[in-house]
Amino acid sequence: MTIALSNGVWTVTSTLINWSTMDSAKLYIDTEDYDLVNPATSFVVDTDPVDGVYQFILEVTTDGTTVREKSCYFVDATFNCKVVDAVYSTKSDRTALYYYLLKNAGACTDCDKLKELFTIANNAVTDDCGCN
Description:
By secondary structure, the protein is an alpha+beta fold. The chain is 29% helix and 35% strand. It has helices spanning 79-90, 94-103, 111-126, and strands at residues 2-6, 9-13, 24-29, 32-36, 42-44, 52-62, 65-75. Strand 3 (24-29) and strand 4 form a beta hairpin. Helix 1 (79-90) runs antiparallel to helix 2.
């Protein structure tokens, strides 16, 4: 499954989506769910999501058999600038390492770990970690 976000529109593509053979498709983004309607592979989100890690689960049913595909997506609208500021002011490259991992973990499907990593990095850039 590949996921893209542009101007508030999520685009989800998958080899599982084949409207000539499947009965239904449902997409879960964290706790929200969307019924995909033929031939939709994209839909509009009301507003651009905030920076963070989002879990996507595509559920396709064909002839009574349900198959699920899972992916994670890191939204980075302003977080990169916060990381630059934090690294510059603290002279610590640890936050940059966390950011690098988040940006390059597209193949990871353990969204809970990526969400924890984002929380750690976000706490570092906002100084909510109680470190200072």
